[in-house]
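Shipment paperwork, digital attachment
Item: protein structure file
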Amino acid sequence: MKYAVSADEMKRYDRNTSEEFGISSEVLMERAALCCARHIVEWCDDRKLSKPRVLILAGCGNNGGDGIAIGRLLKQKGFIVTESVIGDYTKCTDALLHQLKIAEKYGILQVPFSQIKKPEYPRDYDVIVDALFGIGCNRPLAASYAEAVDYVAKQKTAKGDELLVLSVDMPSGINADDGSICQKAVKADITVTFNFTKAGHILFPGADYAGKVCVEDVGITEDSFMGKKPRAFFYDEDISMLLPKRNHAGNKGSFGKILVIAGNPQVSGACLLASEAAFRTGAGMVRVFTAAENRALIASKLPEALIDTYEQIETDNFELIRSRLHKAFEWATAVVMGPGIGLDEFAMQLVKMVLEDCDKKLIIDADALTLIAGNDVLKRLVINYGDNSKWIIMTPHLGEFARLYGKSIKECKADLLNAPKKVADMYKCTVLCKDARSIVASFDEKQIYINVSGNDGMATAGSGDVLSGIVGALSAGEGSAFETAAIASYLHGLAGDFAKNERGCYSMIAGDLIPSLEKILKG
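Attachment content:
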C-alpha cells in the first residue's frame, strides 16, 4: 500500500518535519534538489552529452527555490545553467531569495523570462527544469506563467526526445489534489516528487502530464503524519500479498459459494463472464440463477457451475421465483446480482426480492444499479440493507454512478475523489466507481482507494461483469467490504494489464481477462 496525498496534507507533513522533528526546510530543499539533479545527470550521461545546457524556470515560491538549487548543483558538475524567475519578485519566498543569492555567488546566469522568450534569444537547451508551482497550483495560470508553459511546449515540440523536461514535485498547471488542468500545464518527461505520491500524479489527466513519476526520499516520513494519515491510498504490490490466505485443509465449501444472479433470455454472456471470473479468482462453488435460455451455454462452457433457471412463462409467478431464490440464498456465502438481468418488470421484482430476503454479502452491478437508481422503493431497500449491518458493494461505471447520485456524468467526473464517498454514505454501502482510475469508498471508512492498475483496453463490453465475479469470489474472505472492493479492483486491473501485454489494447475483449487472472494468480 502507498499513500496518495493532497497538497494540504503534504504541506502539513512538510511543516511537521521541520517544526516537530527539527529538520529544517533548507535541509529538505537541498535533499530535493540533489534528487532532481541526479536524475538529470543520469539522463545526460546516458546520452553522453558534453557540457549540457540547462534552463531553470522558477516560480516565486519554495518550488522555485528547489529549481534554483538544482541549477547550482548542476553548475558545480560542469553544466551550462541559465536560471529565470517568473512572477512578481516582491512575492518571492525567503527560501527562494536565499537560493538566488547563493546562485549569484556561483556565477550562474540569471535572465528575465521576458528576454528568454524572445525569438532571437539562444535556446539550444538539453534540459528544462519546471519549478514554477510544485503542488501549489489550483487555479487558472496568470499570463506570465501561461507563457512559460507555452514556451516549454514549443521547445519540446522542436527538439522532441533530445530535450528532457523535468518537473519538480508536480508538472506546473496540474492540480495536485485531483489531476485537473489549471487552464494549461507542462507535459513532463520525468516528475520528481518527494516521499509520497500526490493524487494528481495518478488521476487523469494529470497522470498523462507527469511522465515517469520518481518518488524520492528527502526525509519526510510517516512520523510526520502525527496521527493523521492521508485520506487516499493505492496498491502497487504483488497481489499475492493482498489475497486471502488459502486454507490447506479447506474444501470447496470453505472457499466460498457464490450465487450469480445474471443474464436474461436475450443476454447470456454476462452470467458466463461473472461466473467464470468467480471460479478463476478462487471461489469453491458457483451457482448461476438465470433464464432457461442460458442453461445450455453455461453447461457447455462452464460445467463446474450449478445452474438454477426460470422459464419465461414463470416470470409472473413471483412467489415461485422467491422460493427458488430462498433456497439459493441459504446455500450461498455471497451473492452477485445484476449483470445482464435487463430492465423490465421481472428484473425489478428480482432485485426487490433479493434486497428484501437476502441476508448474505451482496454485490450489486450493472442493470440492478440502473433499476435501483430509478426506483425509490429499491433505494430504500438498499439503505435498509446497509442499516441492518448487511454487507453491500455496488460496482457502477460512471454512467450508472451518475444515476445513483442524481448528478450529471460531468459533475461526477469533476468530483471523482469525493463523490463515491457521498454515494456510499447515501446508500449505506461500499461503492467501487469504475473509471480510468476507479475509486473505492465506504460509508463506514474514512479512507478512499484509488486504483492505478488497468488500461484503456479494458473499456470493452463485459469487463465489468468479470469484475463483479472477482468481487464475489473475494467476498468469501474475512476482509471488510471496503478492503474486498479495493483488492478486487486492483486484481481486475492487473488482469487487464496482463491481457494488454498479450493482446494489445485494440484487440482485448473481456474474455481475455479471465485467462489473465489464471496466469497472475498462478504466479
